Amino acid sequence: MSMAAENWAGLGSAIASLMFLWAVVRQYFPSHLDVYLSTYTSKLVGLVYPYIEITFAEYTGERLKRSEAYTAIEAYLGASSSDRAKRLKAETDRDGAQLVLSMDDYEEVTDDFQGVRVWWTSSKTALQARSISFYPAPDDRRFYRLTFHRRHRKIIHGTYLHHVMEKGKAIGVGNRQRKLYTNSSNYDWYEYKKRVWSHVPFEHPATFDTLAMEPDRKQDIIQDLLAFRESKEYYARIGKPWKRGYLLYGPPGTGKSSMIAAMANLLDYDVYDLELTAVKNNTALRKLLIETTSKSIIVLEDIDCSLDLSGKRKSEAPSERGSEEDKEKVMTGKDKEESKVTLSGLLNFIDGLWSACGGERLIVFTTNHVDKLDPALIRRGRMDKHIELSYCSFEGFEVLARNYLGVGEHPLFESIRGLMEEKQITPADVAENLMRKTVGRDAKENVEACLQSLVQALKECGSKNEVETAAATETQEAKVDEG
Ligand SMILES: Nc1ncnc2c1ncn2[C@@H]1O[C@H](COP(=O)(O)OP(=O)(O)OP(=O)(O)O)[C@@H](O)[C@H]1O
Ligand SMILES: [Mg+2]
Fold first, then answer.
1. 3-state DSSP call for residue 309?
2. Ligand 1 probe mutation, 257, 259, 273, 301, most atoms within 8 A of CB
């Protein structure tokens, strides 16, 4: 089969050369005859050349977006051809973090699938010089061409192409460098459009193992996240967009941001850090959401500070289902100049009205003052899981001691347990005390010094009762002021 196929392929290229000659000659024909001629030539070629070709161009349509099919084929061929193709090209990925191999231009590789042989070639056509354009364009149009015998048409259309896409996408996901996106406006000249998100590689090292938290709660969150990731069919069946909202609340330094990084590392997701105060209005907010990709966590940190979302809507707008106008009115408060994102805009954002474009997104809010948020914002269905991150417990301390000092027990642990029961200290403060004190000191001495410093810090901390009384007085005073 292979020899015969090679012969046919040779014949194919001879015919292609003839066609090229023909194309040159044809220019001198009157145009109405030209249409007939092209139809008959393709029919003639079809009779003697039993191969079918499919072309996958790198850019389609308005050339704004790289074709997904092309990217998947590139990854598929890159992985499967690297030991077969004679010429490969190596490029660093966009962040320069790793080398990606792919077939060089004009290279051909064969692929066998369920007993069927196909040929892939990579090629490019040079673009004609453009008139002066605002956006610089690349000089070439690249494409992959798949050639196969027409008797295999069914298997190629039915299963092979699907196999290539699935495999290519999986390889692409495995290869990718995860990213941390932020919403600042900048132009990306190479993608010919204004990008709403800019990104850097995401390299936060926090994991659930390094997070100080009670083991049961930690396990519960991990299970919840993993279940979410595997629930594509489930969400489709119950008719909900495949997304889940998390509200993380608690005092500063209790690990909210660290937990988000741990979530991203656990699920292998990208992170979109949405700075709400930099978003001009609801339309801009929608655009941002549309531009997010799946397998990502969209984070809104310190939501109580980002906007005046402090439950005013409740007192001014009579019901949660108040008219759109009511909602708009309330949120465009004092900061008109800075951001005109309204509460209803934000609610729509969360409800995923605009997330028709694929699923698998987590939305995470963090706040220090959960009581200040509008209940509509954090009701179940919007923020499905509420997680309180609080002062460090002894169990939390044990995690930190293992991480920072590599010790699971020590004579000082007992007094630390006692102190922790009555004092309030944040995990951030505990962590700070457990940081290595001096370089070169012997490990045992260092452990001792760190734990002593923690004991000292605990002694200086406010006791739980004192802190609670102070907080209550503060709230009381605030209420009197408002009154
Ligand atoms: N639960 C925790 N487990 C491990 N480390 C923690 C934890 N909480 C805080 N830390 C340490 O303290 C530092 C600050 O924590 P983080 O930024 O996560 O706090 P936060 O809750 O987001 O605070 P803020 O409300 O001010 O944003 C982290 O770099 C981390 O090292
Ligand atoms: Mg934080």
1. coil
2. 257
Q: Nearest residue CA, atom 27 of ligand 1?
A: 252
* C-alpha to C-alpha distance for 86 and 228, rounded to whole angstroms: 43
pTM of the model: 0.69
Task: Name the one residue in this structure whose structure tokens are 């308005």.
Answer: 62
Pairwise CA distance, residues 141 & 151, whole Å: 30
10 Å Cβ neighbour count for 426?
Answer: 21
d(CA 59, CA 69): 10
β-strand partners of 445: none
Helices (H), 393-463: 394-405, 413-422, 427-434, 443-460
230 Cα to the center of ligand 1, angstroms: 28
One-letter amino acid for residue 3 of the chain:
M
ipTM: 0.98
Q: Decide whether any atom of ligand 1 lies within 6 Å of the 218 Cβ.
A: no
Ion ligand 2 contact residues with beta carbon within 5 A? 256-257
User: Of 111, 201, 205, nearest to 164 (Cα)?
Assistant: 111
The domain limits of the chain are 50-175, 182-388, 394-465
- Of 45, 395, 68, 50, the residue nearest 213 (C-alpha): 395
DSSP 372: G
Question: What does the alpha-carbon distance between residue 242 and residue 358 come to, in Å, rounded to a whole number?
Answer: 8
What spacing in Å lies between the alpha carbon of 228 and ligand 1's midpoint?
24
Q: What is the DSSP secondary structure assignment for residue 65, as one 8-state letter?
A: S
Beta partners for 219? none
**Which of 3.90.79.10, 3.30.450.40, 3.40.50.300, 3.40.50.150 is the CATH number of 182-388?**
3.40.50.300
Q: What are 8's two structure tokens?
A: 């046919």
Atom of ligand 1 nearest to the CA of 400: 4
Q: Which two tokens stand for residue 130?
A: 């453009």
CA quadruple 20, 24, 26, 27: dihedral sign: positive
Say what the pLDDT of residue 328 is. 44
64 versus 15: which is more confidently predicted?
A: 15
**Residues 183 and 197: beta-carbon distance below 8 Å:** yes
User: Which tens digits make up the pLDDT trace of 87-137?
Assistant: 777 776 555 566 767 777 788 888 899 999 999 998 887 765 555 554 445
Give, using CA atoms, the residue closest to atom 5 of ligand 1.
211
Q: 256 CB less than 6 Å from ligand 1? A: yes
Structure tokens at 385: 């899981």
